[in-house]
Amino acid sequence: MSKNIEIADIFDSIADALEFKSENVFKIAAYRRAARVLREYHGDIDKARERGTISNMEGIGKGMAEKIEEYLLTGKIKKYSEVISDIPEGLLELLNIPNLGPKTLYLIYKELGVKNLEELERAAKGEGIAGLDGMGSKKAANIRKGISLYKLGKSRTPLGIVLAAAEELAAPLKKTAQKVSAAGSLRRMKETVGDIDILASGADGEKIIEAFISHPSVKDVTARGETKVAVILETRNMQADLRVVEKNSYGSALVYFTGSKAHNVKIRGLAKDKGLKVNEYGVFRGGNKIAGKTEEEVYKALGMKWIPPELREDRGEIEASLRGKLPHIIEGTDIKGDFHVHSNYSDGTEDIKTLALAAKKMGYAYIGICDHSKTSRIAGGLDEETLKKRNAEIDEVQKQVNGIKILKGMEVDILSDGRLDYPDIVLEKLDFVIAAVHQGFAKNVTHRMKTAMENPFVDIIAHPTGRLLSGREGYTIELESVMEHAAKKRVALEINASADRMDLNDINIMKGQDFGAGFAIGTDAHNTEMLEQMKLGIGMARRGWLERKDVLNTFAWKDVPLRRYGKIK
């Protein structure tokens, strides 16, 4: 683990402790922001200390810089020891449980003496939590549900983390293997992944295995054979398996180990009906192997077109392939821009010009600078005067940067009554508006979202369920009602590609599509590195069977179908 991550973990723990104690919200936000900056910083923090440039990092003030230097010199941060000194060990970990906020946890700890997960489960199942003032049986049931989600999350890892680890692990294999591919739920781009499966083929299987187990991220080798090896990685103690297969069976092995289980069961049944047998070694008619070298020939032998991995969930993809009716699902090359990018005017860490140049380098035609509105004070929300200043800077940067359109957008809070955080006279001067719920997750969210969509300047609804993969279930919302209203009002639903959100997910995308809703993929990027998370959103869109026409940011910027005037001008 890098020192950047070590310090970020400590800062997050300090923020957890301060939140538990109901300390100043701005102090908590400062630690959270510093932790995020460190996680996203890819330089050598020790060298930054030697250069004296830590305090120059956006989001790192003088106090935070001093704490970083303290850790680099001593291996400790005194503030951390201070804030956790009177909190039982392991108690703060419970804050990762959905539906369990710091105030609730403090009450449970103070009144019931709960200090760990086991004690919390007992209290939630019995009369303990339900009997506390302001709690009741419904709150206890929500906490029990949160515990179940927490346990499930501990056994699976968000796609964004796994994808980066797998790409790093597979890279050196390509020097010795002829073919290398991810398999399993990772290749199908599921939002969370249990472990990493990698398939390889090459002349020297032993050399491929040696390259795999010699990778710096490998913590331990748990099993090793002639064609298969299993290891534990430093990253979250994830398991990774490598299988080395014969080149003439690579396609059939890739189909088999990509799954899903339901998809493979359906394929085997189809093969049986045709008098064939299909397994990881190939497709057979009697004793004769008739296919297996590539995935395409495996599917062709069964009378089908090749099916993209993201669709292989037995949701009708096999039947569609047999009829020649598979959708032409969205590709990465279809994306023309990113609507949801935060600059350092709110809680982003980089300036507008830096973001625009990075987006241009990615081949985008436009980038939407989309900062927070004034009610999101912790996220550095912009008041009207600051918004004017930011828009003027966008105009100035646009004169300096050719070949990409810099759009004036905002992520505008939906208030408690459904009104927006700015008056229409402000909204109409923006190129587009993303409306978002950031407070009151259990308070009339359905009505607020639908009311916000009545505003003619709202183009997109941000992260429609509000969930976080790291441990937040999301809004109390009638999502299908929101989707139906969005389709009626021609407001797009966001597929938020942030690694911790992946919101909407594939199931909800398919529901939205049934209602006729449109979509927009946004990274919610807070720096240039996060722009790369677009691939996570594309993965969700592909799993949701979306085609290019279904997604706003596949259009050239002048043709994006925003409802207020049909296209961006």
What does this structure look like?
By secondary structure, the protein is α/β, with parallel strands linked by helices. It has 5 domains: 1-80, DNA polymerase beta, N-terminal domain-like (DNA polymerase, domain 1); 88-155, 5' to 3' exonuclease, C-terminal subdomain (DNA polymerase, domain 1, Orthogonal Bundle); 157-244, Beta Polymerase, domain 2 (2-Layer Sandwich); 262-322, DNA polymerase, thumb domain (Beta Polymerase, domain 3); 332-559, Metal-dependent hydrolases (TIM Barrel), CATH 3.20.20. 40% of the residues lie in helices and 14% in strands. It has a 7-stranded parallel beta sheet with strand order 11-12-13-14-15-16-17, with helices on one face. Helix 1 (3-20) runs antiparallel to helix 2, helix 7 packs antiparallel against helix 8 and helix 12 (250-258) packs across helix 14. The mean pLDDT is 90.
Q: What kind of assembly state do the chains in view correspond to?
A: single chain
Arithmetic mean of pLDDT: 90
What percent of residues are in strands?
5-15%
Q: How many separate helices? A: 22
Q: Mind telling me the C-alpha Rg?
A: 25 Å
Which homologous superfamily in CATH is the superfamily of the largest domain?
Metal-dependent hydrolases
What is the C-level CATH assignment of the largest domain? Alpha Beta
The strand order across the widest sheet is 11-12-13-14-15-16-17
* Principal-axes shape call: globular
Provide the CATH topology of the largest domain: TIM Barrel
**CATH architectural category of the largest domain:** Alpha-Beta Barrel
